[in-house]
Amino acid sequence: MKYGLRLSTWALAASALPCVAQLPLDVYVEYATFKYDDAESIVELYLSIGAASLRFSAQDEQYLAQVPTVLSLWRASDAALEGTPGDAVWQHSTMLEFMTADTLAIAEGQYYVRQMRITVPPGEYELRVASVAASGQEVEVRRDIIVPTYDTADGCVISDITLATSITRSDDRSDPFFKNGLVIEPNANRLYGESMSRLWYYAEAYESACAASPDDGQYTLLAFVSQAGASTQIGGLQKRSQRRARPVDVLAGSFPLNTLPSGSYFLRLVLLNAANEAQAEQSRKFFVFNPSVAVTQQEAPVAQTFETSEYASMPEDELSKGLEHIRVIATESELQRLSRIEDLDEQRRFLMNFWRVRDPEPNTPTNEFREEFYTLLGYANERYSTRSEEGWRSDRGRVLIKYGQPSSIEPRLYDVDTKPHEIWAYNSIAGEGQAHFVFADLNGFGIFELIHSTVSGERKLAGWETELKSTRY
User: Fold this and answer.
1) Over the Cα atoms of the chain, what is R_g?
2) What Å distances lie between residue 2 and 58, 72, 92, 115, 176, CA to CA?
3) Residue among 267, 243, 264 nearest 255 (CA)
4) Structure pTM?
5) pLDDT tens, 171-192?
6) CB-based contacts of 430, cutoff 8 Å, min separation 6
7) Is the peptide bond before 24 cis (omega within 30 degrees of 0)?
């Protein structure tokens, strides 16, 4: 087994944080699979822990944070029957240790990255990562993993894609991130933005000769970025390269993302033969948060009626989810109207009109308001989800979606005489001006409730400071 550690930085906010931890522990897990042999495949596990969510203590002339962690892999059938007898396919216990010379230099958006490589038979699995925060609270992250066979009998195959924060050439085989002459630092969050504007990727093509021309033994690799929900290439973010066919061909490269507006995207890799036909494809979803980049459009859409819109054929489960989402920002009168609509098509019309009246540029193909809404919703899910609740449903998620990113966040999580809490400050909210929100973990379960806000219509608690000074659990 090989494992490694790196400190990766991509900041959504550049404000420096003190050495206290944010609850719950900020943990992300990602993976990628690669060919090993006929019986097993390689699984690379990427674990990121937010530096600002750790509690550091003085250690010689530096500061040390320790996180006891247990990783285990279960067959999907056993995971579904939790509580029944069974053993993990793989388990590894470790004490993760992180060092820093200056805790005041830690900014929100800094992540320590660890990588582990294991080999397992092909199949469906569930990965469980259980870590214990300095407060004693256990945080568990689960992730479904599909491990393919990488059988090349029927043609070319591309491995999973590793999204990375950087890739550099190296001869240092002792580096835990070394692979095939490269040092690849994975991005388990799959989030890019203003302070990490370049996406790096690594994959492997197996038996690429199936796409090669018999004349010169070369094939074409097409790499491009597309918006989520579309397969068309984004202008300026595509590359074609001629490559020599090999049993294992390393596919590595990068794309600049500084001009992309916030949203969800896919990186796609395609092996093309001489007739420009796809012989193998692979993709990986990632997210971009670029609040300073405006959405640009090249052409206006054709006037659209309900019958020709995407809403007319929207599946019932997607419709139900969409109607749930808009309750976060819908007005009281809109909610009252919606409560009286029972016909599904009328609900679809309501949803279409809900977003259409909020479209700041109705003559462009994209509804920028809706795109920003779902970018924030995705960010809330990534950051505030727990085992019992999706992040967008939480108080912090709702406030984030409704009012946008706060101007600053003041975490007060380990004060001796107060319960853990956060104070969000907004420089300006429409119709309100400057505003504050106070979220507190009142019961010690890592669930932060909104206990006070200066915004009209939000919860107000006259003695919220006293409430926080109650005896800790």
Assistant:
1) 24
2) 29, 16, 12, 8, 6
3) 267
4) 0.62
5) 999 999 999 999 999 999 898 9
6) none
7) yes
